[in-house]
Amino acid sequence: MDNEVKPAGRRIADLIAEFPSTPPTPLRRPTALVLPESGEAGLDAAEAFFALIDEGIRPAVVTAERARDSAYIASRGITELRYAESLPATSAL
User: Fold this and answer.
1) 70 is in which domain, residue-wise?
2) How far apart are alpha carbons 82 and 64 in whole angstroms?
3) How many CA atoms lie within 13 A of 41 on its CB side?
4) Phi-psi label, residue 3: left if phi above 0, alpha if psi -120 to 50, beta otherwise
5) What are phi and psi for residue 50, nearest 5 degrees?
6) Could you tell me which of 23, 78, 87, 26 has the C-alpha nearest to residue 55?
7) What pLDDT does 93 receive?
8) Tens digit of each residue's pLDDT (9 = 90 or more) over 80-92
9) Which residue in 78, 1, 92, 15 sits closest to 47, CA to CA?
10) CATH number at residue 77
11) Residue 57 belongs to some domain of the structure
12) How far does the chain reach from its first CA to its final CA, in angstroms?
């Protein structure tokens, strides 16, 4: 250990420094899973999320409050809202 920055460490530092001027473009995810108002979605939300994954959908996740904000939903490219409580539970393994 010579306490010098290694090439990998230098590259990571460079990427961190570049981030503010060139942030990555978020993936467009047209379907969003809406979490309940209570904020305590727990395993039900996880099951709903994985039910969508099983359908081949990689959902965005939004709160119920954000789901009512049409400008926010449009800015994220979301065109379909799926509510956690209306999705089928996954079967236990």
Assistant:
1) 25-86
2) 11
3) 21
4) left
5) -75, -25
6) 87
7) 35
8) 999 887 665 543 3
9) 92
10) 3.40.50
11) yes
12) 47
DSSP letter at 4 equals -
In a domain, 58, yes or no: yes
- Whole-angstrom CA distances from 78 to 11, 12, 15, 29 are 34, 32, 29, 6
Q: How far is CA 13 from CA 2, 21, 50, 84, in A?
A: 18, 14, 35, 39
d(CA 73, CA 62): 9
Number of domains in the chain: 1
| Any domain includes 4 | no
Residue 12 structure tokens:
């990571």
Helix (H) or strand (E) holding 73: helix 70-75
Parts of the chain with a pLDDT under 70: 1, 38-41, 86-93
For residue 18, tell me if it sits in a domain. Answer: no
Quote the CA–CA distance of 39 and 57 in Å, as a whole number. Answer: 23
Query: Cα separations (Å) of 79 from 13, 29, 32, 59, 67?
Result: 37, 9, 8, 11, 11
